[in-house]
Amino acid sequence: MSTTIKLPQTPTPLEDIYSDNSGTMKQLGWTLAQLSLYLHCIPNIHSENSKFALCGVQVQADADIAEQVWQLLRQAGKPVPLAQLPRKLTAQKIITEPALRAILQKDARFVIKGPLVTPA
Question: What's this model's pTM, rounded to 2 decimal places?
Answer without folding.
Answer: 0.52
